[in-house]
Design goal:
The chain has 536 residues and is an all-alpha fold. It is 72% helix and 1% strand. The radius of gyration is 23 Å and the shape is globular. The two termini are 42 Å apart.
């Protein structure tokens, strides 16, 4: 099992989707049960990966490698090549957990075209997992694009009143970023061939020749990748598709969009932008610009959240603010910032996923998300009010909950790089507390003034089950984050060392090519690479 664990995790949801094709669409209960069984099975199958990875957490390089370079489409050098490190491991576990929770939360929310809904959701799950596992750029791009169609349909078919507008906007924004990223991938592909004589999309192989790219070209490649990933995050000013997509998407779509899809942008920065273009990202002007956009996103997202009348739109804009912290940590370019950023990505998936579930539960009962429609909800739904308070405190970064650990580590890394960055980011923490506590006060405190809220029933056992693992994870990371830091230590140190060794864009070529832990030993190098190193 260990030699193929990644493929098993990757294709379990897809097998579920294929199985559903043979179930009559009229049999909605059977469809729901099968989809939930495969979603839960996908999570349970991923659990053995935890002890397997833990035993190898300090070993360098990618783990659980499957396939070899160029073994899929040899004529173009594309391969079915999977592997993970600590960063992708945590994101895979988050994806399998939130995928199951999202499908479980859809039981009563989706009544039309039920079969198609669950089929597309399971296909989306496979696409997301593939992005975090792929070690071949061609395979990575296939999975990256494969996610677009299911998410477009989930918003466009099962969304709100402006669902088509939101779905098309989401599709066009993401497609624009994908096209620019594709151009960057093709340049890296042909550049590698020019240097080594080998056509390959293998990411570990492309890591070796990327430092040879002249700085004036590398800056344009960085911009192409940056726009593709910044749209997906989304960073300010590429964020305008996000509120529309979140507001119109069904609850489960919002959970998976915020919890996992947005992390693909930050994952792209960590996996590609930093190790491929270390000389560019460490250039003071480039770093300052990206940090500036992150700081604007932190403050802007929080201020706009304060102004919202719709609960779901408030949570959507809070994601812009929280992910600003994540990009701030990434481009601080030190171990503390990068570790805090990846941990905060996991925290955001847990906390904001729960916030969208919270909004969705009220919407199912009342069919409105207007804050003014509520008040005194804690008296009629005490269990719901308690869970909401826990997740609000988690999202705002209260000590002993998960958000605090991530934000503190990011601010530590930002302060180490430049104390002014930390000073500008810190108000975002205060503003997060302001908009979340004010929302809680208006919705839950006081007396029930609206007669429609007097008969609301509290959480069902199924709804409590969707929150239970998220609360457990929030408490675990908040109280004992040491295992997560150990998992991230080795891959983060690799990336920081790569940036440090290649940080001077004006250095001669032979000074730029340093043996980093991304580069295999000469015995495993592709043909021509050994000669390249020898000549330098």
């Amino acid at each position: 099992m260990q030699s193929h664990i990644l493929s098993i995790i990757l294709f379990t949801p897809l097998i579920g989707a294929l199985f559903l094709l043979f179930v009559p669409k009229e049999n909605k209960d059977a469809i729901r049960w099968i989809a939930n069984i495969f979603a839960l099975g996908g999570f349970l199958i991923s659990l053995p990966l935890v002890p397997m990875f833990w035993a190898q957490r300090f070993e360098p390089g990618f783990k659980f490698l499957e396939g070899t370079a160029n073994n899929w489409i040899p004529s173009i050098g594309a391969g079915y090549n999977l592997g993970i490190d600590g960063i992708s491991f945590l994101l895979i576990m988050l994806t399998t957990l939130l995928g199951w929770i999202s499908i479980l939360s859809s039981w009563t929310a989706i009544e039309t075209r039920v079969k198609e809904y669950y089929v597309w959701f399971l296909v989306l799950q496979t696409g997301m997992l593939g992005v975090f596992m792929a070690l071949d750029f061609f395979l990575f791009f296939v999975f990256w694009e494969a996610m677009l169609v299911p998410m477009y349909l989930l918003i466009g078919i099962w969304g709100g009143p402006r669902k088509l507008y939101a779905a098309i906007k989401f599709f066009l924004y993401t497609l624009l970023g994908s096209v620019l990223m594709l151009l960057g991938i093709l340049y890296l592909y042909f550049h590698h061939h020019a240097v080594t004589g080998v056509f390959t999309f293998s990411i570990p192989e492309l890591y070796k020749t990327a430092p040879l790219i002249p700085f004036n070209i590398a800056i344009w490649l960085f911009v192409a990748f940056f726009i593709g990933f910044a749209i997906k995050v989304p960073m300010f000013p590429f964020h305008t598709w996000l509120p529309d997509a979140h507001v119109e998407a069904p609850t489960a779509g919002s959970v998976i969009l915020a919890g996992v899809l947005l992390k693909m942008g930050t994952y792209g920065f960590v996996r590609f932008s930093l190790p491929f273009f270390p000389g560019v990202v460490s250039h003071p002007r480039v770093q300052s610009w990206v940090i500036g956009l992150s700081l604007v996103g932190i403050i802007y997202g929080a201020l706009v959240s304060l102004m919202q009348k719709d609960m779901k739109k408030l949570v959507a804009y809070s994601s812009v603010s929280h992910l600003g912290f994540c990009t701030l940590g990434i481009f601080a370019l030190n171990s503390a910032g990068l570790t805090g950023s990846v941990l905060q990505q996991i925290n955001h998936g847990i906390s904001t996923g729960a916030l969208f579930l919270i909004v969705g539960i009220l919407y199912e009962r009342r069919h409105t998300r207007e804050i003014a429609e509520y008040g005194g909800i804690s008296t009629v739904m005490p269990v719901y009010a308690t869970i909401t308070m826990i997740m609000f405190l988690s999202s705002m970064g209260l000590p002993l909950l998960n958000g605090f650990v991530g934000e503190f580590t990011i601010l530590q890394g930002a302060f180490t790089a430049n104390w002014r960055w930390a000073a500008w980011a810190a108000p975002g923490v205060v503003l997060a507390a302001a908009y979340l506590l004010w929302l809680y006060q208006r919705v839950f405190f006081g007396t029930v003034t609206n007669p429609k809220n007097e008969k609301l029933h509290d959480l069902t056992p199924r709804e409590i089950l969707t929150f239970a693992p998220l609360i457990i994870m929030a408490l675990w990371i908040g109280l004992y984050p040491k295992p997560f830091f150990q998992i991230l230590e080795q891959p983060v140190n690799q990336i920081v060392q790569t940036i440090h060794d290649n940080s001077n864009p004006n250095a001669p070529v032979n000074a730029q090519i340093q043996p980093t832990s991304f580069i295999p030993s000469p015995s495993t190098a592709a043909p021509g690479v050994g000669a390249l190193k020898a000549s330098n």
